[in-house]
Amino acid sequence: MEQGTVTSLLEENGTIKGVQYKTKAGQELKAYAPLTIVCDGCFSNLRRSLCNPKVDVPSCFVGLVLENCQLPFANHGHVILADPSPILCYPISSTEVRCLVDVPGQKLPSIANGEMANYLKTRVAPQLPPQLYDAFISAIDQGKIRTMPNRSMPADPYPTPGALLMGDAFNMRHPLTGGGMTVALSDIVVLRDLLKPLSNLNDAVSLSKYLESFYTLRKPVASTINTLAGALYKVFCASPDQARKEMREACFDYLSLGGVCSAGPVALLSGLNPRPLSLVVHFFAVAIYGVGRLLLPFPSLKRMWIGARLISGASSIIFPIIKAEGVRQMFFPVTVPAYYRAPPAK
């Protein structure tokens, strides 16, 4: 185990041979290995040669730690459907609650000149549960405000001999559903199972060909969680459009029905049901449930029009995300040749 800051990958004839890194003392050193796993996070400066990074920043999180307050439902995470976008609250200790306020777009109110404090007090605080209000105002007054861009990036790798991308350096989704670690740990299990039968990693070209199957085998879990995160964020954002409002309310009420209507989406969220088709079925079940509520007991032309726009809006949310993930890899992975790659001969 060596600790240092990696400054670059060492490449030779298109193959990654290792890394150049800087120690705490400032010494520049090189380390060589037959396989380099690159997992340097969302701000990765090493991924550019290993994938096509199309990073989108739909919003930012403004984070606060609320002290000595009780959540409406103890020991549970809370998603508050606020205007303009959701607020997350969840306990991080017996006395502390982390609050993440989603602010759409990339431009945040300034913390330095007090704009942020004013925005949080006037726009956000009135929408919080009363139990959290005083602790929220107190946290703002203490100035403990942290910000973080929320990034989204589909996995689009360049299979490179000698190297493999993992984690947020490789694939990101909106953190609303907290799916990042689930995807990363699932990817580790897939990679472990692929490497297990190998006793020698030194044939970089054969290994790279074999590890192409990693990108297909990871898809069921990764694409389900990625698509759900992107779709839920868009559904949960406030909108002046009546059809989007109906979709948001239908989603909440569908989950409130209990039984398969809540267990199904929760199994998808947690990675316990890595079936993209189940996700599409539940997503459109929400849309149809929303249309049904509009049309019963007495349909009108206006309600039918809103219902048609609700279905159209649901399609325009989910299909672009599925397209970015890759329809074939998501729904028909067994038709991808890399799915059947055998380990290289010893």
Order of helices and strands: EEEEEEEEHHEEHHHHHHHH
Outline the biggest β-sheet.
5 strands, antiparallel
Molecular shape = globular
The rounded distance between the terminal residues' Cα atoms is 27 Å
Rg over CA atoms, rounded to whole Å, is 23 Å
The count of helical stretches stands at 10
- Secondary structure category: alpha+beta
- Low-confidence parts, pLDDT < 50 over ≥5 residues? none
Helix content: 40-55%
Q: Tell me, rounded to a whole number, the average pLDDT.
A: 94
Fraction in beta strands = 15-25%
Report the strand count. Answer: 10
Strand order of the largest sheet: 6-7-8-5-9
Would you write up a description of this structure?
Residues 33-302 form the Squalene epoxidase domain. One of its GO terms (biological process) is response to hormone. It comes from Vitis rotundifolia. The protein is α+β, with helices and mostly antiparallel strands and 346 residues long. The protein has helices spanning 115-124, 130-141, 180-195, 204-217, 219-236, 242-256, 260-269, 276-295, 301-325, 327-331; strands at 5-12, 15-22, 28-32, 36-38, 56-67, 78-80, 87-91, 96-104, 146-152, 163-165. It has a 5-stranded antiparallel beta sheet with strand order 6-7-8-5-9, covered by helices on one side. The chain has a 3-stranded antiparallel beta sheet with strand order 1-2-3, with no helix packed on it. The longest helix is centred in the last third of the chain and has 25 residues, at 301-325.
